Amino acid sequence: MARSGGKLLLIAAVLLLGVPGAVAEDAQVNTIQDIFRHLRTCWKPPPAARARPIDITVIVSFNRAGNILGHPRITYESAEASDDDRLQYRVAVMEALQRCTPMPFTDAMAGAAAGRPFAIQFRNRKTSPDRTSPPTQERRA
After folding, report:
1. pLDDT at residue 121 above 90?
2. Does 93 fall in a domain?
3. Is 12 exposed, middle or buried (0-12, 13-18, 19+ CB in 10 A)?
4. N or C, where is the chain less crowded by C-beta within 10 Å?
């Protein structure tokens, strides 16, 4: 099933790169923190009825115009996630990137961000685990 997840990610990336996205906000992105804030406005995790909450990280780079450069790459997913959870979240991440691009960089930020890889964490689990439960194992994608 890992193969179908890779195909779905590739299809989502192709769709993402082939369709111009809508800008989530009119505010200009002038700092690295602004990049993360801007992306948070676009994040819509899958409903709980479709997928359990998981954490997922994607590496993405932008060009000077704020469009995605290359292919976004998933580098981390919660270990306890099922294959279906992973697929649902991968699609949600690609949709968030599509909604947020092109990134509305200021001229100064466009030069600073162009080609630089950003590790974007989409956290959807509780950040403070219950002390009685054992720690979860991380799983690299």
Report:
1. yes
2. yes
3. buried
4. N
Is residue 133's pLDDT more than 80? no
Q: For residue 116, is it within any domain?
A: yes
Query: Which tens digit of pLDDT belongs to each residue from 60-110?
Result: 999 999 999 999 999 999 999 999 999 999 999 999 999 999 999 999 999
Residue with tokens 């819509």: 44
136 alpha-carbon distance from chain centroid? 21
CATH of the domain at 18: 3.30.1150
Measured distance CA(118)–CA(58) in Å, rounded: 8
Domain count for the chain, please give it. Answer: 1
Nearest by Cα to 109 from 119, 96, 120, 118: 118
In the block, tokens 């630089």 appear at: 116
Give domain status of residue 133, yes or no: no
**Is 131 a member of any domain?**
no
List the domain range (segments joined by +) for residue 74: 2-126
Q: What is the sign, positive or negative, of the torsion defined by CA atoms of 89, 68, 24, 31?
A: positive
Q: Say what the pLDDT of residue 123 is.
A: 86
